[in-house]
Amino acid sequence: MVKLQLGSFKQAPRTTHATVTEHLRQAILLGQLPGGTRLVQSELAEAFNVSVTPIREALRELSTQGLIELDAFKGAVVRMPTLGELEEVYELRSVLIPLVVKKSIARITPQALQQAAALLTQMEATTEHEPWVDLNRQFHNQLDDAAQATCEVQSGCPRH
Questions:
Q1: Model pTM?
Q2: DSSP per residue over the chain, as a string?
Q3: Alpha-carbon span 132 to 109, nearest angstrom
Q4: CA-to-CA distance for 9 and 22, rounded, in angstroms?
Q5: Packed helices 41-48 and 52-64: angle between N→C axes, nearest 10 degrees
Q6: pLDDT tens digits for 21-72?
Q7: Alpha carbons 58 and 70: distance in angstroms, whole number
Q8: CB of 35 within 8 A of CB of 80?
């Protein structure tokens, strides 16, 4: 079993099930639990110091999110996306990100631009994967927030 590094979250989920789900989700997204990793309920329950019930609920939820596969014989396994799926995600992002930037330009504040520049500087300085992914997410959230403000002002569209 892969050793989990349980970090702190800015806003802790309210239930044990939600806490376990979020920790596992982050571990999968950050590559701490790579594709193909078998997730044994009893081992996870011991690692999180909880009963098996919230683990089972978390695995079920992660399965509906497409992050793990549940199999009656193999149990829970972290899902490994196919090359085709990764190519599709890349293609969609290559269309959506420029659109978000275009919408953001008119609404982004000088303060938000300074924060984005600071994030880019930090991204360039880091050599570790996990901090870079977090900084990248923060950088893109800056653009997304400005685009969302544009969207709400112009058409009242819902938050995605």
A1: 0.61
A2: -PPP-----SS--SSHHHHHHHHHHHHHHTTSS-TT-EE-HHHHHHHHTS-HHHHHHHHHHHHHTTSEEEETTTEEEE----HHHHHHHHHHHHHHHHHHHHHHHTT--HHHHHHHHHHHHHHHH---HHHHHHHHHHHHHHHHHHHHHHHHHHT-PPP-
A3: 24
A4: 9
A5: 110
A6: 999 998 998 888 999 999 999 999 999 999 999 999 999 999 999 999 998 8
A7: 12
A8: yes
